[in-house]
Amino acid sequence: MRKLKCCRRNPRRKEVNMKTDVAIIGAGPAGLMLGHLLRQAGIEAVILEHRSADYVLSRIRAGILERVTVDLMKELGLDDRMNREGLPHDGFYLADGERMIHIDMKELTGQSVMVYGQTEITQDLMEAAAPRGLEIIYSAEEVALHDVDSDTPHVTFRKDGAEQRLDARFIAGCDGFHGPSRQAFPASVGKAFEKIYPFGWLGILADVPPCNDELIYANHERGFALASMRSKTRSRYYIQVPLSERVEDWPDDQIWDELATRLGPACTENITRGPSIEKSIAPLRSFVFEPLRHGSLFLAGDAAHVVPPTGAKGLNLASSDVAYLSKAFIRYFKKKEEAGLDTYSSTALARIWKAERFSWSLTTLMHRFPDAGAFGRRMQVAELDYIAASRAAQTSIAENYIGLPL
Ligand code: APR
Ligand code: PHB
User: Fold this and answer.
1) Does the annotation count 217 as an active-site position?
2) What is the pLDDT of residues 19-48, one digit of tens each?
3) Per-residue model confidence as pLDDT tens digits over 64-81
4) 367 C-alpha to center of ligand 1: Å?
5) Given the CA of residue 48, which atom of ligand 1 is nearest to it?
6) pLDDT computed for residue 98 by the predictor
7) Are 153 and 296 in contact (CB under 8 A)?
């Protein structure tokens, strides 16, 4: 493993001191991608992750990659497995009862998305870290940020019982929605915008062929359903459930029955049932924190924003954040220019809010809301009628789905 810039033990305090250019908190996709982009440019970075590598890889995440993520993996030279195993998708369906509206992304925009599990992306990034000199310290406990409003911030943590200190020029908070980085912003500096949805998604992963070649987002009177996939032999499905539901109360058969009903005619006959490999319920939330910078601390990915999974923007937004942030850091370290750092927050937020709008609007269009009433339902039908008949409306959906330009 590569040596850190400096590493010394203080014998009296049993403290290990390290120094790097950018301390990254969190080894999710945001932290890993940022770390690799910096290392590729010859900038030192250390990632502190409070979980084990196995735990991080056990989290099942969405599976749609926009161009920004595909390009980023290519730029890092880590796209071999993605190109081999990923499935390019040219379109998807919006279903409403019996009606299926095809959104032909390729025809409408000239572009496609890539179906490749986000967990696979994380694995590819993790495996390449050590060979490329990107240090990841797993199982780092009690990670705390200090002096973030100065030019000499540092992070303290415990590892194997020893107190450790990592000094850095910058800290990148890539520690997800529950991490400590956002909390390090003074209350007077940050503002949070949030919408909680009154339902969750119950997901099931199974080694069965998908019911359809393309994804189907279905609005059914019993609630939303999504048919997705990881490969030609592994399917990922979701159904909308009330927040009060517990996954233990959902035997596999009951989930397959709901899917067959909700996904409509295209899937009812074609669903292959099989034992679940994973089942979980995730709540839906829209969340944005502004600004993304305080002094030497920068937020990226879920630490700064969360989208409901409808449209699979989570990882792709993390990709655009770190594409902007890595360029800003590289400009600073290579040319001593701070302009990129100064504009990072506003540049990234402009794209974040557009993805938030799209995820919220697709969620609103395709789910059954307990308090929507007959009027709310008519609005959904009218919008779906409009989309079905309008190339302009379909193009708008397609260009948001494939991802807005950086
Ligand atoms: N100390 C260190 N690490 C922490 C701490 C902490 N106190 N708290 C959280 N972390 C780690 C988590 O264990 C996790 O590995 O930060 C990481 C954050 O990763 P994600 O939650 O995956 O967030 P992010 O990297 O921003 O992911 C972006 O990718 O897979 C998708 O759906 C996911 O929308 C998300 C997107
Ligand atoms: C998934 O495959 O897990 C998935 C796909 C599309 C979404 C959300 C999740 O919009």
Assistant:
1) yes
2) 999 999 999 999 999 999 999 999 999 999
3) 999 999 999 999 999 999
4) 27
5) 2
6) 87
7) yes
**Range list of H helices, 16-94:** 29-40, 53-58, 67-75, 80-85
Is the CB of 143 inside a 6 Å radius of any atom of ligand 1?
Answer: yes
> In angstroms, rounded to a whole number, what is the distance separating the alpha carbons of residues 208 and 276?
10
> What pLDDT, in 10s, does the model give residues 338-354?
999 999 999 999 999 99
What is the overall mean pLDDT for the chain? 95
Measured in residues, the chain has a length of 406
C-alpha–C-alpha distance, residues 300 and 80, integer Å: 26
25: buried, middle or exposed (CB in 10 Å: 19+, 13-18, 0-12)?
buried
Which of ligand 1's atoms lies nearest the C-alpha of 122? Answer: 30
Is the Cα torsion angle 204, 206, 210, 215 positive or negative in sign? positive
- Ligand 2 centroid – CA 309 distance (Å): 7
> Contact at 8 Å (CB) between 302 and 356?
no
Q: Which residues contact 291 (CB under 8 A, 6 or more apart)?
A: 189, 190, 345, 346, 349
**CA 20 to ligand 2 center in whole angstroms:** 36
| Region 269-293 average pLDDT | 96
Number of CB atoms found within 10 A of residue 208's CB: 17
354: its two tokens: 């557009």
> Is 344 an active-site residue?
no
- The yes-or-no answer on residue 332 being catalytic is no
* Per-residue pLDDT reduced to its tens digit, 107-164: 999 999 999 998 999 999 999 999 999 999 999 999 999 999 999 999 999 999 999 9
* Secondary structure of residue 168 in the 3-state scheme: coil
As for ligand 2, residues whose beta carbon falls within 6 Å of it are: 62-64, 215, 226, 228, 236, 309-312
